[in-house]
Structures are given as C-alpha cells and as structure tokens.
Sequence to fold (83 residues):
Amino acid sequence: MLRIRLRRVGAKHRPYYRLVVSESTRTPQARVNEVLGTYNPGTRPSTVKIKLDRVDHWVGCGAHPSLTVARLIERARRTQASA
Fold:
C-alpha cells in the first residue's frame, strides 16, 4: 500500500521535511516514488509547499496520507483558496 508521509532531511536540531510517496512497508529513508513538497517547521510561520495536483493524483491511485500530512494538505488547500 502506498503512503504519503514526511521524510526528515534537516540537520541536527533543525528539522526540514519532504512530503514523499513510498511503499508503506519500507522505511521512510528508503527509495521514494515521488517528492510532493516540503515542510519547514523552523520558520515563523512554518512554511508548507505542496504540489496539490500531484497529491490528488496519488490519492486517486490509492495512496493514503498520514495524519500529519493530511493536516498539512488541508492547510495548504485553505491558504491556496484564500490567496
């Protein structure tokens, strides 16, 4: 089963994440199918950049977002709608 989840790529004590699509049985550091965006919680306000059209494509293919990623997607959709 495919999952949309966060993959940490930041330095020690400076987290930075990529939203990736990968097989749920693999570790988050394993090979990924596609990078869908980034999330930087270290900035104020935190920065979220997501390719929503690609998220919709992967969800249509059966990928399930993690709970945290689902909240980030909702937030990105709200900011895109208000802009």
In short: The mean pLDDT is 93. The chain has one domain: 2-82. The beta strands are 2-8, 17-23, 34-40, 47-50, 64-65. The helical segments are 52-60, 67-82.
